[in-house]
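re: that chain from earlier
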Amino acid sequence: MNKINEFINSGLYETLLKAVQERNVEIDNIVPFSLLDYDRERLVAARIEIEDLKALLSTNMEEATSFVKSKMQLDFDEEDEYPVGEEVIDDEKPRTINELPYYKNFLVAFLIEYYLLKIQPKELGKYLKRIRIAHASKYEGRLKELWKNVL
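^ sequence. v structure.
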C-alpha cells in the first residue's frame, strides 16, 4: 500500500488531479488506510501493478485526462432500474442529502479502467465481474463507448 500512497502523492498523479479539479471538484487529501487497501484489491483484480499505471500515465497524460474528465461527466443513474409496473414514486427514490468531497485516491479506479481499455480491452469485462460491479456487461459497454469518444 506504500506504493499506492506514493503514487497518489507523486507529481504525475497530482498533475492529473489538478486537471480534474478545474471542474470544481472538491478533493479530501486525507485518504483512509482502508481505501488504499480497496485500491490494492482492485489492482489485484485487474491483474496489474501500480507501476503499470505510472508508466501509462507518464506517456499518455493528455489522453488519460480526457478519459477521466469524460467519465466524470457520465450519468450512471439507472432510469430503467425497476421493472415496468414496479417503478418507485419520486418520494421513495434515493436522494442526495449531502455531497462529500472525493478522496484523493479516487482516480486510481479510473486509471485502472483506462489502463484496461487501452492496453487489455478483453480483460475489462472480467475485471468488472471480479470486483462485482452491478450490471457489469452494461457498464463495460458504457465504458467502451466513452473510450471511443475519447479517441
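The beta strands are 27-28, 102-103.
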